[in-house]
């Protein structure tokens, strides 16, 4: 019973992964979206490093100034003080947790 359940789970996982690859390939072939720009660097620190199903990581920390490694720094708050978030996607971990 356990081996058949494991086999079903592995088959479903394989179908999901193949579906994601097919969707990405279709988008890139048609040109509807640009490829994900992966930042090979690592942030000095990140307390909210989020893993996505694609194997990429993003840092959701809201900071006063983006790390110099960050290629795409987005303004997320303007009042009472301007705050930023690094919108880059990282392959591997974002960085060690920040010490406050």
From TrEMBL:
Q: Which classification does the entry list for the species?
A: Eukaryota, Viridiplantae, Streptophyta, Embryophyta, Tracheophyta
List, alphabetically, the InterPro entries matched. Bowman-Birk_prot_inh, Prot_inh_BBI, WIP1
Query: Which named protein is this?
Result: Bowman-Birk serine protease inhibitors family domain-containing protein
| Cellular component, GO annotation | extracellular region
Keywords attached to this entry: Disulfide bond, Protease inhibitor, Serine protease inhibitor, Signal
The secretion signal range is 1-22
- List, in alphabetical order, the Gene Ontology terms for molecular function in this entry: serine-type endopeptidase inhibitor activity
- Report the residue ranges that make up the Bowman-Birk serine protease inhibitors family domain in this protein: 59-73
Instruction: List the source organism.
Output: Oryza brachyantha (malo sina)
Identify its protein family. Answer: Belongs to the Bowman-Birk serine protease inhibitor family.
């Amino acid at each position: 019973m356990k081996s058949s359940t494991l086999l079903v789970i592995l088959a479903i996982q394989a179908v999901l992964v193949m579906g994601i690859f097919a969707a990405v390939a279709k988008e890139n072939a048609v040109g509807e979206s640009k490829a994900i720009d992966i930042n090979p660097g690592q942030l000095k620190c990140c307390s909210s490093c989020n893993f996505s199903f694609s194997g990429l990581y993003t840092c959701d920390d809201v900071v006063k100034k983006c790390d110099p490694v960050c290629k795409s720094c987005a303004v997320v708050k303007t009042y009472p003080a301007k705050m930023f978030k690094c919108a880059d996607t990282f392959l591997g971990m974002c960085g060690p947790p920040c010490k406050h």
